[in-house]
Description:
The protein is mostly helical. It has a 3-stranded parallel β-sheet with strand order 1-2-3. It has helices spanning 17-33, 45-49, 56-73, 89-98, 104-109, 111-120, 128-131, 133-143, 156-172, 189-192, 217-225, 246-254, 257-263, 270-279, 284-310, 313-342, 350-374, and strands at 4-9, 38-43, 81-84, 148-150, 182-184.
Amino acid sequence: xxxxxxxxxxxxxxxxxxxxxxxxxxxxxxxxxxxxxxxxxxxxxxxxxxxxxxxxxxxxxxxxxxxxxxxxxxxxxxxxxxxxxxxxxxxxxxxxxxxxxxxxxxxxxxxxxxxxxxxxxxxxxxxxxxxxxxxxxxxxxxxxxxxxxxxxxxxxxxxxxxxxxxxxxxxxxxxxxxxxxxxxxxxxxxxxxxxxxxxxxxxxxxxxxxxxxxxxxxxxxxxxxxxxxxxxxxxxxxxxxxxxxxxxxxxxxxxxxxxxxxxxxxxxxxxxxxxxxxxxxxxxxxxxxxxxxxxxxxxxxxxxxxxxxxxxxxxxxxxxxxxxxxxxxxxxxxxxxxxxxxxxxxxxxxxxxxxxxxxxxxxxxxxxxxxxxxxxxxxxxxxxx
Length: 385
Ligand code: ATP
Ligand code: MG
């Protein structure tokens, strides 16, 4: 079976380091190791509109921002397709058919949707489009017959929903058209759901608690130095907690042995640093300075590449156009298989024409036979005007 990746982001803002460790870094690695037949990266503008209907301008402007972040992080358009979701109407059509296979109760149980509804403060006035976005995500994934979705932990319930739709579709229409995808979670725990700099559960574009891939060095430094740490670690000599401490979680996600050699040679690795913090005698400022160095050295090449791509926005749109055109052909092929399986491909269905013609012909024969049994017909008399 072909190994196909589908993944993506909502263009609601620039990408942050949570996106990077949760999914983007892995996409670049997978792209470069070449173990996949196809990589599709979706800029999910239609999905972004489900809770930004009153602000299409925000979505419109961020399509380029997200694409610039991809290119800057190392996505190579010669190896990976970058695709604009709303330019592929087949995805909307698939969503519409899948909606019939999912119950309202099932969507209401989705833990990610539940959290997001609270986060956005929708109360009971949830836009129907937002409520149904897990179904549209299933359409995105299955349209490309994706086998693998590299994503953060928050996407697990979406993948489960997709697998259910695949099973339901293949069972209902007695076919094997759709493929069940697997989620590919980040290799380390910290990266599965990176917290915000405020210590909140998840770094998110919508919560203003993010360090962006495109932040300038001074912004990164200020954000790191203002980070929430262990609130009980008041004096340097106090013992500190590393669990749930965002500074250490970021180090878990980003620090490599070479960073210690370069910026903090008195410690061999992160375990040694954590041990010292736990014992007491290690100040937050020292740890934050180290984290700042680690982030600066990780983000510097990304920012520099971004500035290069920013000089040619027409090129960025060319990349999007090419990726989208190729992707549309594939989505169209899947939609056609879906319609064949559901037998709603009326104009291509020669069998249906023949079958129905036969039925009508037989009915006509029966009528004629019944009439013949009744005796000859009265000649039809033309009504006089
Ligand atoms: P929004 O607030 O608009 O929903 P977001 O910051 O949650 O934005 P998405 O576009 O919804 O970002 O997510 C894109 C991808 O990034 C998904 O694979 C998601 O799992 C991953 N991701 C987002 N935030 C984090 C995070 N804090 N830690 C790890 N992965 C994340
Ligand atoms: Mg999100």
